[in-house]
Write a structure and sequence with these properties.
The complex is a heterotrimer. By secondary structure, chain B is α/β, with parallel strands linked by helices. Helices cover 29% and strands 16% of the residues of chain B. In chain B, helix 2 (62-70) crosses helix 6 (161-172). Chain C has helices spanning 3-7, 19-46, 70-96, 101-116, 123-141, 148-175, 184-191, 196-214, 222-226, 232-257, 263-286, 290-318, 321-356, 367-370, 372-385, 392-405, 414-444, 460-479, 482-496, 522-543, 571-581, 583-586, 616-639, 644-662, and strands spanning 52-55, 64-67, 511-513, 518-520, 551-553, 588-596, 604-613. In chain C, the strands form 3 sheets. A two-stranded antiparallel sheet of chain C has the order 1-2. Classes of the chains: A mainly alpha, B alpha/beta, C mainly alpha. Chains A and C meet through helix 2, strand 1, helix 3, helix 4 and helix 5 of A and helix 16, helix 17, strand 4, helix 20 and strand 5 of C. Bound molecules: iron/sulfur cluster.
């Protein structure tokens, strides 16, 4: 049964992630007063890219070719380690949050190495900026993990979610609010959304993630785009289930599984819509203002840790 | 890391005023039907999405103004699955404007070879199609069809956004 | 630090080897024998078959004696494992690189000394070996004695290692019982009877002495200077085995013999460790020489290990027995994994330096296409060291993080220790990833930044074998950590004399602590990753139709004629964003020189941009200390004018003063 939940989760993420990206741009477009393409547009693009020719620059080496596969595979692996549709998956007792966060990092590192391997200017530029953000984001991530692990006495994701289901009152604490705020910043930075990175820009001065992909074409490009969509959905799903695990069930029967899928889908949709609404009102931060934002997230995480160690939750 | 700076910067931000359209659907192109598939310009293209790399090979920028008009909320070219990109690697073809000048000739050909198959070439504006009477100019090398296999011509000097969108939709099939 | 100077270190083929080569062969054979014997001894030692030798006639009046324990054997085992691989590597390397005769002769003795130190059982033995180790490594740093950089590095290193030696000497003077013999077991008995003040002094002395050897800030300055000068196999040993002995000293003397100190010991260790880690990783990420980068990264890792030792001391003070166990375990695992990946990185760098004649990242690049094996080796080392999943460094760091997040509410300064320590570890590993991406991505991938000519490898078999062994070791630790953790857990149990109670350790491949509620299973995740890779390769065929044949094209240059390799990001530009963020700490120094044409001042003919990095601590602290010393020397010199009468007068004044004071 855990295998079935895993398959359901993977299918859910693979098919759903381009839709979420489509939904976000639909919402943004509608608010800007546009007619807008429908939510299926990212899917059309993915399908098209998979049928296109692949061009490899002469200067690139083997890493350039391998990087998109590694990025996609590590993101896919991470999606098999997060409680999105069930609180029990194969090996779920071994999915430590520190470990799973490492899979996101693994993807970023491979993409950066691939970009450096392209032997072009933009590849290096994107890699350098991306690695700066990764480096500065790491403290915020680990601090949020620390803050979350305190209430469950464990840093296992599934244990944290279970603990929240068992003691829902613990969520209503200042510590949770602070760690939620810290995690929101982490999620935004990690998924490359505004105000940290603008996924729609191609200007030298501003682009981070896009700069690394400029030399890619065909299915490797599709894999990269798809992987960042998956990453977005994973992070949104993770944050919603960490703080609001209602609707997650043990893998016992297919009906419950279906209900879980629907509820998680709804949660992710809701969060994505909120994120899109917020993005309309935002401009991208200057690259060198981003560390301030990440530093803010770190401090929030630190406060959350101190609060959860020394302040009791409001509701027992 | 200056956290105080971060907080003050958030405070001091001017609230953004949204552009509120009076009606949600007042687009000019909305009246047009989706083009039928008989107007197939190329069999091997995958319909639904068309990403173009725009190359200005010597235009007067009149065509560019109309192109940028296409992406405004009023016309919203992107809603038909058509968009522009910075890298020819990400694109399905070139959108060329203006006569091909001597200086841009090589760059144009290079851009063409940097686009993965299957690819289209769209010549936009009379200059791109037939030099618009400027062929004898000292810096003019050729019109686009002389150098590249043009799949779609959008005549006009400059063509209006409505026309551009209409023509491009025959390629994107949306 | 001048980069060209380093560049020529490894490549000036000094002598055609003839009679020299027999000498080199003997030296190699000796180092192989020593290291294999050391390996056997260490392996026997961790299984309670202790090595015990007593040579009372040697070095009278104390005699030399060895009697190992489990902890010492564990360190000998680590050192010897590295030494075996390095010796094998050296069989090939010694013939193609420019070892001086002295370095060749020193090398096997250095290996033997390193292996023997953890086995020493008396104070004199320990001190003699410790001083020998310092001298031998100085000789190795002086491999190119004619180079001013080498001389400067050796001088600095000599001063700092003497500082280390004297504080260790003073430490033993404070801690040994004058009425008992000078064996370590006697020290152990005596240590608990000392007054708190004496114990505090002993701790500080041990901290300075062993901390210097481990390269903790602010006494780290010798590391990034000495490593680029020593030949690669020697820096591999110095950067792994020798610094580990600093940690060995801290573990053995602070947390075993001085067990149960006050909280501030632990806090000091954690703080200094955290500062070392963060400071050195920043330096590492911004240095553009491969060997300097690796040397700073060693200091960084030692900082993290010092944090683990500090956590252990702190937990002992707070009586959290289980966390004492976990943090000691973290210490041992971190030492072992660091040794294995750093040795590999240094050896691969040695090959690069030998083949290309430089270790300057700004003129490397594109090695992946030419030196596949070395690139793979460095890549494995880089990934292992950056604390990513399946990397060797991850396991130790993870256990340390698990320890820290379980500390729970405490009072006083200790309450801040855990959150700040986690922040420091996180920042370190974040920037560490960047440093390694830079080292690997700039140095090995992309296009060659300068014309390196034909890259030829001679005698590569042995080098390949040595690096291959280390690479396999890295992969084993990354994917099957339980082999290492169960050994280490055994050692830690031995240290605690069973006081840690039952722990669930390493059943098959899981790694974790039930008490801490955390388990990871690298091999399970590896299965998931492989399945994902398979899925990734078939997805394109499911989703898309068949696509046209792929094509190799010119890189996209935005319409420009062509891209030159110099347009790629280089080491300095890669690190620039981070450098700017941390400019308060890193103090980047920029120099822009422009030359203009005769005809017009406005048209430039040449622009030169230089970005140099200074070690802020070094320039702030060391230069001041040196200035102060030379000032005092000036004053003293005033009295020293060589006149006999003045000296007699000094004597008389001194005598009078004594009389006055005594009466
Ligand atoms: S077609 Fe007309 S508007 Fe377009 S570039 Fe030529 S002259 Fe300008």
């Amino acid at each position: 049964m855990t295998i079935i939940s895993l398959c359901a989760q993977i299918v859910f993420i693979l098919t759903g992630s381009p839709l979420v990206v489509g939904l976000m741009s639909w919402i943004k477009n509608r608010i800007e007063g546009r007619r807008s393409a429908d939510v299926l547009q990212p899917w059309r693009e993915t399908r098209k890219l998979f049928s296109k020719q692949v061009l490899y620059p002469q200067t690139a080496g083997g890493f350039f070719r391998f990087a998109p596969l590694a990025l996609f595979a590590s993101t896919l692996s991470a999606s098999a380690m997060i409680p999105l549709v069930s609180i029990e998956l194969p090996f779920s007792s071994t999915f430590d949050l520190f470990w799973v966060v490492g899979f996101f990092l693994l993807g970023s590192v491979f993409l950066a190495l691939g970009a450096l391997d392209s032997g072009t200017v933009f590849g290096g530029m994107g890699a350098s900026r991306e690695m700066m953000i990764v480096a500065l984001l790491e403290p915020s991530i680990l601090m949020s993990v620390y803050a979350l692990s305190i209430r469950a006495h464990s840093s296992n994701i599934f244990a944290i979610v279970r603990a929240t289901i068992l003691h829902p009152g613990q969520i209503a604490s200042p510590a949770s609010a602070l760690s939620f705020a810290a995690l929101v910043i982490v999620v935004i930075a990690e998924s490359g959304r505004l105000p940290v990175d603008n996924p729609n820009t191609h200007l030298e001065l501003t682009m981070i993630h896009e700069a690394m992909t400029l030399e890619y074409s065909g299915y490797p490009l599709a894999l990269i785009k798809w992987a960042s969509a998956i990453r977005l959905v994973l992070l949104l799903g993770l944050i919603s289930n960490l703080f609001l695990p209602e609707g997650l069930f043990d893998s016992t029967n297919l009906v419950l599984l279906g209900v879980s899928v629907l509820i998680t889908g709804a949660k992710v949709t809701l969060l994505a819509s909120i994120l899109a609404l917020a993005e309309v009102h935002m401009a991208k931060l200057r690259l060198f203002r981003v560390p301030e934002l990440l530093g803010g997230s770190f401090v929030l995480g630190l406060l959350s840790v101190t609060a959860s160690l020394y302040l009791p939750p409001i509701l027992k | 890391m200056n956290i105080i700076g971060c907080v003050t910067s958030m405070k001091s931000r001017v609230p953004v005023k949204l552009y509120k359209p009076t009606k949600w659907f007042h687009q000019v192109t909305e009246i047009q039907k989706q083009p039928d598939s008989s107007e197939n310009i190329r069999g091997d293209l995958i319909p639904g999405s068309l990403v173009l790399r725009h190359v200005d090979s010597g235009s007067c920028n009149g065509c560019e103004i109309e192109i940028s008009g296409c992406f405004s909320p009023t016309y919203d070219l992107e809603s038909y699955g058509i968009s522009l990109t910075a890298s020819p690697r990400h694109s399905d073809g070139l959108l060329v404007t203006g006569v091909v000048t001597v200086n841009m000739r090589e760059a144009l050909q290079e851009a063409y070879s940097s686009v993965p198959e299957p690819k289209v070439v769209v010549a936009l504006g009379d200059c791109a199609i037939n030099c618009n009477g400027l062929r004898s100019g000292y810096g003019v090398a050729a019109a686009v069809p002389d150098l590249l296999p043009v799949d779609l011509e959008i005549p006009g000097c400059p063509p209006s956004p409505t026309k551009i969108i209409q023509s491009l939709r025959t390629v994107s099939k949306r | 630090m001048s980069v060209d100077a380093i560049a020529s270190t490894e490549n000036s083929h000094r002598k055609p080897l003839t009679s020299f080569s027999i000498f080199a062969k003997i030296a190699n054979l000796l180092s192989l024998i020593f290291s294999i014997y050391g390996f056997k001894t260490g392996l026997a030692g961790i299984n309670h078959h202790f090595f015990s030798v007593s040579l009372p006639w040697l070095a009278p009046p104390f005699g030399i004696s060895f009697h190992s324990d489990q902890l010492g054997s564990f360190f000998t085992l680590i050192i010897a494992s590295i030494a075996v691989c390095v010796s094998i590597f050296n069989c090939g390397y010694i013939r193609v690189s420019s070892f001086s005769a002295i370095s060749i002769a020193t090398f096997p003795i250095f290996i033997a000394t390193l292996e023997l130190i953890p086995l020493a059982s008396t104070v004199p033995t320990f001190l003699i070996l410790w001083e020998m180790m310092s001298l031998e490594s100085i000789l190795l740093v002086l491999n190119h004695i004619e180079r001013p950089n080498a001389q400067r590095a050796a001088l600095l290193y000599a001063v700092l290692s003497q500082l280390s030696f004297f504080s260790i000497l003073a430490f033993f003077a404070v801690i040994t019982n004058p009425f008992d013999n000078a064996t370590f077991s006697a020290i152990g008995r005596h240590a608990s009877l000392l007054t708190p003040d004496t114990r505090n002094w002993a701790f500080i002395l041990a901290f300075i002495g062993f901390g210097t050897k481990a390269g903790l800030v602010p006494l780290h300055a010798w590391l990034p200077k000495a490593h680029p000068e020593a030949p690669a196999p020697a820096s591999a040993l110095m950067s792994t085995a020798m610094v580990s002995l600093g940690i060995y000293g801290l573990v053995k003397f602070v947390s075993v013999y001085l067990r149960g100190g006050p909280q501030w010991w632990g806090l000091l260790l954690v703080a200094v460790g955290a500062i070392s880690a963060v400071y050195c990783v920043m330096q590492s990420s911004s240095s553009s020489d491969l060997k300097v980068l690796l040397a700073y990264s060693t200091s960084e890792n030692m900082g993290i290990i010092a944090m683990a030792v500090g956590t252990e001391v702190l937990m002992t003070a707070l009586h959290q027995t289980y966390l004492v166990f976990a943090s000691t375990l973290a210490t041992l695992i971190l030492v072992a994994s660091h040794a294995i990946f750093k040795a590999l990185a240094f050896l691969a760098t040695g090959v690069i330096a030998h083949v290309t004649g430089t270790t300057d990242l700004d003129s490397l690049g594109g090695l992946a296409k030419k030196l596949r094996f070395s690139t793979a080796a460095f890549g494995i080392a880089a990934i292992s060291s950056s604390g990513l999943p399946f990397g060797a460094a991850f396991i130790g760091e993870w256990i340390l993080l698990q320890t820290l997040i379980h500390i729970g509410p405490t009072r006083g300064l200790a309450a801040l220790a855990a959150p700040l320590a986690i922040g420091a570890i996180a920042l370190t590993s974040g920037i560490g990833i960047m440093a390694m991406v830079k080292a690997f991505g700039i140095g090995f991938l992309g296009r060659a930044r300068s014309d390196l000519g034909e890259l030829k490898l001679e005698n590569f078999r042995a080098m390949q074998f040595g690096m291959g062994l280390l690479a396999v070791g890295n992969i084993l630790i990354g994917f099957f950590p339980s082999s290492l953790t169960s050994i280490s857990a055994n050692i830690v149990h031995g240290l605690g004399n069973g006081s840690f109670g039952p722990t669930t350790q390493g059943t098959s491949e899981t790694l974790g602590f039930d008490t801490l509620g955390g388990i990871i299973l690298p091999i399970g995740s590896a299965a998931i990753l492989i399945a994902s890779l398979l899925l990734t390769t078939i997805i394109p065929t499911i989703v898309g139709k068949s696509h046209p044949e792929s094509r190799t094209v010119e890189p996209w240059a935005c319409g420009a004629r062509e891209l030159s390799p110099a347009m790629q990001y280089n080491a300095s530009s890669f690190a620039e964003p981070l450098e700017r963020v941390f400019s308060d700490v890193l103090r980047p120094h920029r120099d822009v020189e422009t030359e203009t044409f005769e005809e017009s001042r406005l048209i430039m003919s040449r622009i030169q941009f230089r970005n140099t990095q200074q070690d802020a601590i070094e320039s702030a602290l060391y230069n001041r200390v040196i200035a102060a010393i030379s000032q005092t020397a000036q004053i003293i010199r005033l009295f020293h004018n060589g006149s006999l009468r003045r000296y007699l007068a000094f004597g008389a004044v001194g005598l009078l003063a004594m009389v006055v004071f005594l009466s």
